[in-house]
Amino acid sequence: MRRYWQKKPLLIRQAIPNVEAPLTRDEFFALADQDEVEARLITHARNKWQLEHGPFAPDELPSLRQRAWTLLVQGVDLHNDRARALLDQFRFVPDARLDDLMISFATDGGGVGPHFDSYDVFLLQVKGKRRWKISAQKDLTLQAGLPLKVLQDFRAEEEWLLEPGDMLYLPPHIAHDGVAEGECMTCSIGFRAPSANELTAQFLYHLAERGESNAPSGALYRDPQQPAVGHPAELPAALVERVGAILAQIKWKEQDVASFLGTYLSEPKPSVVFDPPQKPLNEVRFIGQASKLGLRLDRKTNLLYNRRFFFLNGEETSFEGAKKWLIELADNRSMSAKRFVTLSNESSVTALLHEWYCAGWIQVGELA
Ligand code: SIN
Ligand code: CO
């Protein structure tokens, strides 16, 4: 982190020795056939790039004998526990920055073309081989008229052949091009960094929604001095001035920023739907099972916290006596059976956890 994060590329040979692809090829193709999954198919033939959006039935994919196509699925961690577990290995970076695990499958010669991303990424080879070329070039002009981002003039400065377990870290805006050598699978562990514009818009929305902008609340615009006008379409200068004065009173405290970030960053992606248990255990049986098997956050759950609040899937709540357990659960994404037993006589905590279990936000049993 000190030397490379957000600073310069790093190739790590055997970053994860004996790594296994979280899904087999067939499981991956089955995932790309699901409606709620974001899948893209990119083909490159006779110098022409093509992009299609999924879902893809297996017979809609090109043949495995066809060269130079690649299938990419975003957010695999939301659909597969092994993918989630792999993403968890990157929690040396705060969850607030972690975005998703994308997987690409490619046939020989397949790739998405030379491009750059605006976010940090770890490119972990999990099956087969891929040749990566990278460049810190300044010229990031894209080819015009293509359905995907491909650099006009990519000038590779370094190149490596990555084998399973090898990983390449790239900070934002480093040009790169990865081409499969034979069939291969690559995991991209991606990060998020909302733009200043996005943060500003969302924060102001958050303040207004909570009525915490400190602008004279509920005050309506008034204009007792308004004279009769001969130019009714003209925007009155006094109106602009008055509204400017209202906006200038918008104030916030640090806790407002923390509340905004906690709720905003823990908000599930729009496609996320939780699966509550079909026949939920009642609270007593839930406590019994969790005392034997422990608990874990559902792979789709986002749980963040700060000193005063925790933020669960976009909702802010105060700790109410459960602080140390919730902090542990958030940091570990699981709680051992032994640990659960120590809290099982805290009825407010077990009631809360049972509620979360019924909503599908946590599961009984730690991951195998
Ligand atoms: C890929 O896996 O082919 C593309 C990943 C990337 O370059 O961001
Ligand atoms: Co990229």
CATH topology of the largest domain: Jelly Rolls
**C-alpha termini separation:** 29 Å
Bound molecules: succinic acid, cobalt (II) ion
Structural class call reads alpha+beta
**Estimated helix fraction:** 25-40%
Shape: globular
**How many DSSP helices?**
9
Name of the CATH first level of the largest domain:
Mainly Beta
Number of discrete domains = 2
CATH architecture of the largest domain: Sandwich
Mean pLDDT: 94
Query: What is the radius of gyration computed over CA atoms, rounded to a whole number of angstroms?
Result: 25 Å
Number of strands: 15
List keywords for this structure.
single chain; 368 residues; alpha+beta; Jelly Rolls; Malonyl-Coenzyme A Acyl Carrier Protein, domain 2; 9-stranded antiparallel beta sheet; 3-stranded antiparallel beta sheet; 9 helices; 26% helix; 24% strand; binds succinic acid; binds cobalt (II) ion
Structure description:
By secondary structure, the protein is an alpha+beta fold. The protein has two domains: 10-191, Cupin (Jelly Rolls), CATH 2.60.120; 283-364, Malonyl-Coenzyme A Acyl Carrier Protein, domain 2, CATH 3.40.366. The chain contains nine helices and 15 strands. The strands form three sheets. Strands 1, 2, 3, 4, 5, 6, 7, 8 and 9 form a nine-stranded antiparallel beta sheet that branches. It has a three-stranded antiparallel beta sheet with strand order 14-10-15. It has a three-stranded antiparallel beta sheet with strand order 11-12-13, sandwiched between helices. β12 (309-312) and β13 (315-318) form a beta hairpin. The chain starts with 9 loop residues before the first strand and ends with a strand. Cobalt (II) ion is lined by residues 115, 117, 176. Cobalt (II) ion (CO) binds at residues 115, 117, 176.
